[in-house]
Write a structure and sequence with these properties.
With 576 residues, the chain is of the alpha+beta class. Strands 1, 2, 3, 4, 5 and 6 form a 6-stranded mixed sheet that branches. Strands 9-8-7-12-11-10 form a 6-stranded antiparallel sheet. The longest helix is centred in the middle third of the chain and has 39 residues. The radius of gyration is 34 Å and the shape is elongated. The N and C termini lie far apart (93 Å).
Length: 576
Amino acid sequence: MLLQADTCDDGMPSFLDQRTVAALFDGNPAAVAVLDHAHRYTYVNPALEGLNGLPAASPIGRAISRVLPDLRGRAAALRDVLADGKPREETIRGQTRATADADQRFWRATYHRLDADGAACGLMAFVVEITDITSQREELEEARGHVALLSTAAVRIGTTLDMDTTCRELASLVVPDFADVAAVDVFPPEVGHSVRRPAPGVVRLRRAALRGDGDLDEQVQRFGHPGEYVDFTADSPVTRCLAENEPVLDGWENYSSGRSAFTKDRITASRALGLREALVVPLTARGRPLGTLTLVRADGSPAFSGQDVAVARELAVRAGVGLDQARRYDHEHGIARELQRSLLSEPWGPHPHVEIATRYLPADRGVLVGGDWFDVVPLQDGRHLKAMGDVMGHGVEAAVAMSQYRSLLRLLSGEDLPPHQILEQLDGMVERSGLDRAATCLLAVVDRFGGVCEVASASHLPPVFIDPGAAGARVVPVPVGPPLGTGFGGYRTAYVPCGPGTVLFMYTDGLVERRGEDIDVSIRRLASLTLQRGGHLEDLLDQVLDRFGEDAEDDIAVLASRIREGPPVVRPTPPE
C-alpha cells in the first residue's frame, strides 16, 4: 500500500497533521510511528510510548534505531521502502525499557512509504507484539485503511469545479470502504431559480449525491434522488449537526423519523434494508456551512468508532475546500448566466414584416458563460436592425460589458444611421466610456422595398444568405473593420441582394471555431445550409446546431431572419 501525501518537508507530511494523526492513532492498541525521510520520529502514539518505556515526546527527532529494539542492523529495510515504495514486514526481537525481565520478546513491524507528488518523504511504521497479533490485526488494518482513505481523498475529491461532481466524488470515495450508504446534501444555490421557503424550524437542502453499496444503491433512491430538495426537521441529526457544527452519531431510525419527508412506510423500508446507524458531519469552508455528509452503516458492518468520527470529520474538511471552490465558481457562473439570459430575451414583441428566430447555446458547465449577444431593433419604414456581437472574455464582467454594448447600440439605432456609421459612433462611445473589453459586432438592415441588405462588420464573422429553394447558401464576405472599443474606426457598409423569402443567418464564433482547423474551412461549411421555400426558421436553427454545435468549445449565439413573403408592397411616401 502506497500512501500519498500532499506536501512534505523534514516534519510531518501535510495530510497527516498532528491533530488528525492523534485522533487516528492515539487510542490504537498497535504501536504507530511516523518517520521522516531520515528515519527520525515525527510522531509516536501512546502504545509505542508504552512499548519503549519512554515519554511520547522523548523519541521525537531521534532515529528509529535508537528507540525500537533490535533495529540497529535493519536500516536497510527502511531504505528499501523509501527507494521502491513497496511495504516491508519484519520480525523484531529484543527487549525494551518498559520491561524488567530478560526474556526475549517478539514484534511484527510493517513499514509504508509516504509520498508527495511522486517523491518519497517519509515512512509510517506499525508495530504489534506477536503474542497479541491476532487480536490486534483488525485494529491495525483499520488504521491503515483510514490513512489510505485520507490520502486518496486528496486526489479524488475536487477534480472539477462542478458542485455536484465534487459531491459525487465524495460519496463514491466513502462507499463501500467506509460506509454502506452515503448522502451529500447542500444548501440551495444563491443564484438561479428560486426555492420555496421551508416551514419554520425546517432546514431545506438539495440532495447532491446519494450512493449505496451494491443493491443498496438502487434501493436507497426512495429516500431522495439527487437533485431533489429534502426537508429536515428541527430534531433531525442533520439539523442538529448544522446548528452545532459538530458530528452527530445517531440511530438510522431516529435520523429517518426526524425528517418531515419520511413517512412510516419509509421508516419501515429503511429497517428492511438493515440500515442501522448514521453519522452526520458538517461540510464547511471559511467558517460558512455548505451542507452535510451523512454516512450510514447497515447490519453486518461495525459500529462507528471514535476513529471513524475523526476520519469522517477530516474527510469533510477536505471536501469542504473543493465544494467551496465549486460553489464560488457556480455563483459567478450563475450570475453571468442569469444576466445573459435576461439580456438575450427579445423585449420588442412580434415583428409584423419580419420573421425572427434566435438561439443561445451555452458551452458545457466547464466553460464560464461568455459575452455572446444578439438584438433586433425596429427602425423607420418597417425596417429592422439586426445585431450579432461577441464581447471578448468570459464571466460576469463579459456579461456586464455585453449589456453596455447592447444599450449603446439601441440608443444609436434611433438616429436612423447606416450600419457603418452606427459602428463608428459605437466604437467612439465605448472608447470614451472606459470600457476595457473589446467586442466584435455584425450589423445588418434589410430594406424590404429595395431588396437589399446593408451590412457592416466590426471584426465579426461574415453573414450567410439562404435564398428560398436554392441548393446552397451564400457566405458573403463583407469589409471588416477593427473590433469595437479600439477607437480606430474605419467601418464600411456593404450592399447584398436580399429579396423576400431570403434568410439572413448570423452567428458567433463558437459555431465554427474548432481546435486544429482553419476557421475559413469551418465557415465554408455553412454554404451547405438550405431551407425550402416557406420552411420554418426554427427548423433551420435545429439543423445548424445539430450539424455544427455538437463539438463546440465556446458559447453559440445564432439568429435567422427573413422578410415575410406576400403581395408586393409600395414604399410609403414621406409626408411633405
